């Protein structure tokens, strides 16, 4: 099945539209200002979605990987690594864990990078470049290698051992760059080489790749397919908010197409040491910058948020939760007792649920984003 994507539109003003190609990698050039960068999203010909596309059992008859959901994704022009299809595991009565560590590079980022590397192939880019402290870089390197494209990764000097091993195995060019220099260097490399950026280029707020978050919609599709219904709530580890937005949009599409009555309430679970989305929601602004204190949740300790997260929480009647490292460690230990070894950041969803207490009505899904092998505390002491 081919993509039904028709174009891109601004989240700042949905009436502002752009062609599907080329994918916008710096947000909306019309509605964004020096102070606020509004992302774009992909629109689709929803009236052409095949009847029964999300009916029980329908997905199982289709190919593995993103091809299973191809009509509601941007064109898939890079080869698959059989991303997605991760298990939904019962943790206790009414609580489920979506274990994203089962993806090809052990994290949820594979869902995004199948899409972004496809975009790079679609525009004929000579390679891809990514700024990442961990999971994103490992995933981008894998999909670039699969597509036969060189990949440059700007990462931290203290990248986790598993991430470093992934990058070396896939032949990526790795540059260890201080965090404050990473994004200016990314922009410079894009301008000099023509490589396609698969991570954020904007500084006023996070916009990210225009196509990328579409890959995260498949989490919502799979949850619906396995539960046979929409859950009441979903708890999502949150950094820049791309996955949070993608999960919301996937559920919103299911409701739009008649497979549910109401989008689940989404909870963004951020480290208490920072929390730009919580700050934006509290202050009623499209995005916020915050100082980031000490935290071991390096994968989601973002100093700046993006408007995507605000949209997801507003439209789902959700909330932003700030979880401490102690709460994260407790949630990680609880997941391990259930047989799931998660990265500390990945346990933020369950930590958020436990913070709210047992009064949340089920079924509830906590997304666990990555494997415990990705933690920095595995470095030799």
UniProtKB/TrEMBL annotation:
Molecular-function GO term, any one: threonine synthase activity
Any single Pfam family the record assigns to this protein: PALP
Keyword Methyltransferase: no
Tryptophan synthase beta chain-like PALP domain span: 80-369
Cofactors that this protein relies on: pyridoxal 5'-phosphate
Top EC group: lyase
Source species, domain of life: Bacteria
SUPFAM superfamilies: Tryptophan synthase beta subunit-like PLP-dependent enzymes (SSF53686)
GO biological process: isoleucine biosynthetic process; L-serine catabolic process; L-threonine catabolic process
UniProt KW keywords: Lyase, Pyridoxal phosphate
UniProt-listed Enzyme Commission number(s): 4.2.3.1
PANTHER family the record matches: L-THREONINE DEHYDRATASE CATABOLIC TDCB (PTHR48078:SF6), THREONINE DEHYDRATASE, MITOCHONDRIAL-RELATED (PTHR48078)
Protein name stated in the entry: Pyridoxal-phosphate dependent enzyme
């Amino acid at each position: 099945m081919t993509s039904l994507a028709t174009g891109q539109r601004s989240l700042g003003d949905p009436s502002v539209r752009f062609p599907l190609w080329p994918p916008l990698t710096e947000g909306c050039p019309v509605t964004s200002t020096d102070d606020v960068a509004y992302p774009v999203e992909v629109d689709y010909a929803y009236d052409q979605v095949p009847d029964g596309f999300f009916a029980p059992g329908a997905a199982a008859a289709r190919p593995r990987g993103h091809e299973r959901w191809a009509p509601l994704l941007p064109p898939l022009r890079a080869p698959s690594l059989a991303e997605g299809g991760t298990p939904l595991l019962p943790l206790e009565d009414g609580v489920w864990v979506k274990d994203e560590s089962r993806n090809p590079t052990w994290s949820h980022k594979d869902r995004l990078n199948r899409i972004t590397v496809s975009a790079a192939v679609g525009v004929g880019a000579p390679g891809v470049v990514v700024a990442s402290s961990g999971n994103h870089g490992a995933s981008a390197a894998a999909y670039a290698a699969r597509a036969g494209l060189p990949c440059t990764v700007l990462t931290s000097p203290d990248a986790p051992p598993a991430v470093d091993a992934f990058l070396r195995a896939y032949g990526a060019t790795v540059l260890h760059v201080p965090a404050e220099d990473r994004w200016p260097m990314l922009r410079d490399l894009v301008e000099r080489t023509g490589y396609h950026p698969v991570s954020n280029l904007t500084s006023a707020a996070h916009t990210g790749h225009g196509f990328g978050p579409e890959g995260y919609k498949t989490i919502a599709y799979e949850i619906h397919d396995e539960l046979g219904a929409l859950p009441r709530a979903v708890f999502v580890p949150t950094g820049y908010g791309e996955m949070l937005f993608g999960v919301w949009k996937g559920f919103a599409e299911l409701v739009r197409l008649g497979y549910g009555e109401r989008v689940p309430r989404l909870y963004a679970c951020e480290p208490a040491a920072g929390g730009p989305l919580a700050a934006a929601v509290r202050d009623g602004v499209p995005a916020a910058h915050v100082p980031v204190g000490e935290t071991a949740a390096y994968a989601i300790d973002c100093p700046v948020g993006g408007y995507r997260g605000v949209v997801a929480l507003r439209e789902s009647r959700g909330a932003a939760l700030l979880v401490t490292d102690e709460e994260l460690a407790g949630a990680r230990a609880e997941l391990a007792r259930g047989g799931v070894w998660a990265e500390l950041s990945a346990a933020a969803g369950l930590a958020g649920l436990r913070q709210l207490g047992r009064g949340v009505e089920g079924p509830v899904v906590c997304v666990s984003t990555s494997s415990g092998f990705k933690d920095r505390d595995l470095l030799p002491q």
